[in-house]
Amino acid sequence: xxxxxxxxxxxxxxxxxxxxxxxxxxxxxxxxxxxxxxxxxxxxxxxxxxxxxxxxxxxxxxxxxxxxxxxxxxxxxxxxxxxxxxxxxxxxxxxxxxxxxxxxxxxxxx
Length: 110
Hints:
Blueprint: H1 2-16, H2 19-30, E1 33-34, H3 35-42, H4 46-58, E2 62-67, E3 70-75, H5 79-109
Antiparallel strand pairs: 1-3, 2-3
Helix pairs in contact: 3-4
């Protein structure tokens, strides 16, 4: 059971391991969007957005509902929004630590 959970986590994080996919998830955290809306906001080609959405769909991170000729994409689990917030906090903490280290290094050089 533990190995299965670790495998699930590994696959889930692999699905997040691309800057464009992270940006798409950030946008979907704000609300449901079509491919065209995502493409317009990101300023990327539709094929690139579609490819990344396909990966996120295959890993069950997002899902799409066909509405007329469009597909509306949503986060499968709203907790992904919280995960992205925590990741930003970790990044911010790392950045603060790096800045503090740099300041100490500069102070010791003087």
